[in-house]
Structure formats: structure tokens, C-alpha cells
Specification:
The structure is a homodimer.
Chain A (H helix, E strand, L loop, with lengths): L3 E8 L10 H16 L6 E5 L3 H5 L4 H8 L7 E5 L4 H15 L5 E7 L6 H8 L15 H16 L3 H15 L13 H5 L3 E3 L2 E2 L9 E9 H7 L5 E10 L14 H14 L8 E3 L5 H11 L7 H6 L16 H5 L3 H17 L12 E8 L4 E9 L2
Parallel strand pairs in A: 2-3, 2-4, 9-10
Antiparallel strand pairs in A: 1-7, 1-8, 4-7, 5-6, 8-11, 10-11
Chain lengths: 386, 386
Amino acid sequence: MRDVAIIGTGLIKWGELWEKSLRDLAVEASLNCFKDAGINKVDTISIGCMLGGIFNGQEHLASLIPDYLGQKHVPAMRLESACASGGLAVRTAFLEVASGMADYALAVGVEKMTDVSGGEATYGLAAAADQDYEAFHGITFPGLYALMAKSHINRYGTTREQLADVAVKNHHNGALNSMAQFPFAITREQVLSSVMIADPLRLMDCSPITDGAAAVMLTTVENARKLKKHPVVVISGIGLASDTIAISQRRDICKLDAVEIAAQRALKMAGKTIKDINFAEVHDCFTISEIMVMEALGIVKPGQGGPATSAGLTALDGKFPINTSGGLKSKGHPVGATGVAQICEVVTQLRGTAGKRQLPNAKVGLTQNMGGSGGSCIIHIMEVKS
Amino acid sequence: MRDVAIIGTGLIKWGELWEKSLRDLAVEASLNCFKDAGINKVDTISIGCMLGGIFNGQEHLASLIPDYLGQKHVPAMRLESACASGGLAVRTAFLEVASGMADYALAVGVEKMTDVSGGEATYGLAAAADQDYEAFHGITFPGLYALMAKSHINRYGTTREQLADVAVKNHHNGALNSMAQFPFAITREQVLSSVMIADPLRLMDCSPITDGAAAVMLTTVENARKLKKHPVVVISGIGLASDTIAISQRRDICKLDAVEIAAQRALKMAGKTIKDINFAEVHDCFTISEIMVMEALGIVKPGQGGPATSAGLTALDGKFPINTSGGLKSKGHPVGATGVAQICEVVTQLRGTAGKRQLPNAKVGLTQNMGGSGGSCIIHIMEVKS
């Protein structure tokens, strides 16, 4: 297996972008990535997108995106694993380069979510759950995560304030990220008084509906060294795992087994333990998710996610900063793009170009991107290769 | 890159299977594949499916399928490239094994199409076209292929009878395939008098709407030799290419450039020319497609696809048999499963276990699986490794 480096990242400002179509979003982020990498022709394109079909009536992005990106006849594929689609696209680009099938592989994640009604959006997102045994019966994603939150509160004494503190922290960071959909700070009181969505989760516990895209360019470490554009950031570990799609079938409703197992696989591949990781971007689709993910990754013990957050462990100046980008909560959550954008943030931190949100000692970073209620998880570990 | 072999195939009887859900179909084909391979645990699962979201409200098959297949926590991903989704799933499984990421990789293709109305089916399938510049304006897939057929007729003098002969040949073969949706022979007269769908294409020029699944198991050649269950069938070449999604943007409406380029790539990887290939399974979603594909693959010269078909070149006893399985026309076309089932047929022929439709000299076979109106194409070349 060849060693793989990330030589480019491409982001656009996320939001409710009515003037941009699905293809526009993907092309714009990809062109920004080409510019950053100093490359304008790739051997393969892997595209992460969940809802092109349901929301936009557009499947077959493996034809559409190379076409509109001016990459005539380039091999392409679309990956989907609900909200983990973006991370999967990067993993597939990694396989292309690692196997020797391609030298330069673009991974682009995209989602165009704001052209549909709230009801349609809820229906579409619920396609990440078990349609026959969950969604069809009326439960929504906030509902599924609310069940997990209630259980976590009951078992561990996690508090409403601790949940709120996840959102407060992430908005603090997002306020320093000009690409974020909601780049402003919020208070604990604002979270606690926001409208109830699914008890105990309120509006400000939930990540938003977003139009957006993100891209990364992968090549061999050897090629990356020749280009000399940036410090050489390598992907040293990847872990992918699945779990039951329905939460009723899980071993434990308070545990995210797919996250734990994907992390073990990625750490093993990288030859590291969680103590070797300096910072992470994690999948805070709801505030409870970030708390449960901290526990599944082994950053804290089960039940300690809430208290550790309120104590500042995961703050920008904490011992283990999480979601320096603002996370899904503040940066936005265009589902197919999220996993790719997480990787962009880690690369930016490792390069030392994160501006006001730059961490002082960013050497090894991790991304955790999750599908559905934890039915799939993809983890990447990245570091600067000296 | 490690050499990759196919050690198992799994099919089910295709049709209008109201008693089986999307997950049932995928699980049943996969279990048949496990049995054939003599393996009951895999390292990774790649799933080809186009319309789970639009037709079944079910995305996130990367969680659902390992869950229901009893492959707890196994890494999985879903690939989509319209009707080429199945071929892409096999290609990704190949990358898993070739790169060393996995030793045993299952690729399963599935589609559950008959739970929706004809109008919904037409809308869903049109998501393979350019939604903004083709489908939204009302053109359907039969309409797109009818435009190509009209152009081919005008330029080359291809006749209605030659189109019909593609369907007649494929039904002849499908009548020998117990897994086919429509396992019976038809006559040229029946095709020519069937109801008009989109001039010049009639009902019997069109592949049907089908529920179905198919699976293959991949591992290293080394592992395949150890298992000694079957002759060792290797994937010696893979080619993937894209083209403009809209036919109006193509270089030539009578040419399938993605097919031609994918074939060149696959043949180069296998170190072969088209003359080294004995037989093929091709994407006859409409009768005109098979004729245009024959020309794009270089089996015949441009314009000769029709006359060569009527002269018997591609018949079961012809010099270059095409679609011994019955093709999409007779076997059925559950879009995500088609590319995988094509590979099952080639493996069956190479093993010499195709029964009444067995070819006498099947040494090297090719599959050609196409997305949309030719906006993407994936080609595999397989042969018995001595």
C-alpha cells in the first residue's frame, strides 16, 4: 500500500445558497481545491453526497461532476453512507492512490438541502434510519438522538447545561471561521430557551440544514514532496465500521459502538493510541452526539463527556480541542460535505494556517464522521510527515 | 497492487417480487454468494444501488446490509453511478483487496423497483440524466435512447428489424437462464408489433423494471488458490470512464465515448486487445444500446452493430457471443444489481457451469455496465488463471 498525502483543500462559504445549484457547489469547492493543490487535472474523482436523489432529483453525480468540472472522461464514483458520505469519499480516494490505481485523486462532498420544504428535509434525512422499522413509523432524527440523550441523562446524570455547553463552545469556534454558516457566538441561556424540537433537544442543540461543499486532493507522499507547496500532511490511519441501523437493536443505547470500533481500527493502522491525538473534528449533529463521541473515542470515560465539556477540556484552549471549525452546529451540516470539511479543518490546523482559531500544538488530528444514529462511522487520522 | 480473484457468485430469481424487501433481496443474493465461496465472514462490503432513496426511502445501505447480513461492525459503503452502480461496487471491492485494505470483499448490487408507480419509476430513473437540463424538461430514458436510435438509423441505415433482432437474441439466451425475469423466447414480429414507447423504440426494445440482487466475493489470487473450490477466475482489467451527463453536450450522439475509453483502459490494464476477448455481457437497457456498445467496444466498425447482430455474430453460437445470460432485456434490469450480475454470468461461463447456455471456448470475458445515457461506464475483464 502506497503512503498517501493530502495536498489540497477547498471550501466555500456555507449557508442557504439559493443562487447556487448542487453542481455549482461541488464545482466551486473543487476549483478552490485545485488552486490550493496547484493541480488542475486528476485521475479520479470520488463524490460524497447523500440526498441528491431525494432532494434534487439528481443521481449519477459520477457523470455530472467531472463533466461540469472540466475533467473530461475522468473516472468517478459517488459514495453514500448517510451523513458519513463525505468521509467515505475521502477513504475511497485514499484507496485509489494507495492501490496505485490513481496518482491524483479528488474527493468532493456536496449537499444542496435548502430547495425543499422542512417536511421533505425531515423525510429525506430519515432515509438514513431504518425506513421499515423506524422512519416509516414517524420517528425523526432529532427524535432518535433525543432518545439517546434521555438515556444518557438518566444513566449518567448528564445535564441540560452540559448539552448546551457543546453548542456554546462550537459557536465560539465557528465565530472565528469565515466559511461557517452561523459564525457567531451564543450563550448557554440562548440554547436553554430555544424552541423545543424533541425533548430534551432544543433548536440550538441541532445542527442546521445547509447548502455546501468541500474538497480535498490526495496523492502519494512522493508526489507531495515534489510539489513543495505545503507541509506534507499524510493520512496515517483510517477506520470504518458499521452498526445496526435501528437504535432498538443496539447493544447499548448510550454507546456508539461503530465509533469505538472505527477509532480502534484507525489508531491501529496509524500505530497510535488516543493519547497521541492532539485534537479532533467530530460529528456533532446534535449536542448529545459530541458527548457520546468523546466517550466512544476514549477521550473521556463513559458518562464524563458532559462534565468534561463544561470543564473546558474540548475548548479551543483546552487539553483536547474538539471542533475548532465550529463543528456541524455552527459551521453547518451539508450532510455529504461534512466529512470532507472536517478533513479540511484538520489539514488547515496541521499546516498552521487556521488564523484566529489556530491551535498551538497541532501535530496529529482526527476526524470522526458518522452516518444516521451511529449506524456507520468513518475515522481519519492525519499528521505532518517530516 | 495485489492480484484479485472472484471466488463466489450469488444470484436470486429476478422479477416482480412483492414479497421481498430491498434488504431481503440483498441478503438473499449475498448468502448465496457466501455459500458458493465457502466463506461466511468478510472484511468489507460494497453495495451498488441507485434508487434506494427515491424508491424505498432508504439510504444508508452501508449500515443496513451488514446489519441484516449478520456481518456485525463490518466496514461497508454504497456506490452509485445510476445503472452502473453494480459495476462500481465490484470495482471498489477490487480496490479494497488490491490495496491490501481487505482480504475478503463482498460486492452486492440490489434494486427494489416495483413498489412504485410507473410515473414514479420514470421520475426516479430520470435522476440518472441531467435533472436541470434534461429530465426537468420532461424527457424520459426511453426518449433519450430514442434520440440516439433515430440518429443511428439516419446516419448508418440501421433498421427496425436489426433493433428487434437484439431483443430476439437476448430472449433466446434468457430462456436458458432460470434466474431471468422473462425466461422465454420472442419473435421479431412480436417486437415489431409491440406498443410504441418512444419512436422508434417499442416496448420489446426496452429492458423491464425489476426487483433483484446479485453478489460476488473477491479475494487475493493466493487465497483463491488455497480454497480450491473453483477454477481461479481473476479480474485482469478494469476501466472506468465518464462522459457529459446530457446527450446534447456529446461529441457525437451516435457514439458512446465513455464506453470506448473505459474499454481502452480495461484492455490496457489486462494487456489485451478486443480480439483477445471471447464473449461479453453488455448493457442492453434498450436494443439500440447493445448495437452502439458493440461499436464502441470495437467488436464491429461504427454502423455495423445492426447488420452484425442480424447476421448472428453475437448469438450464442456466433463468433462473439453477447449477453449469454439474456441481458438486461430478458434477465431483467434491477439497476443497482445489473453490473454485478453481468460479472456473475462471465464467471459462470469461465467456470464452465452455464448449462444449456454454456459457451464452448470461454477463456476471457468482458462486462460493460453503463450509467444513464452513457454518462458513465465501467468495464471488467475476467479470465481463468492457470
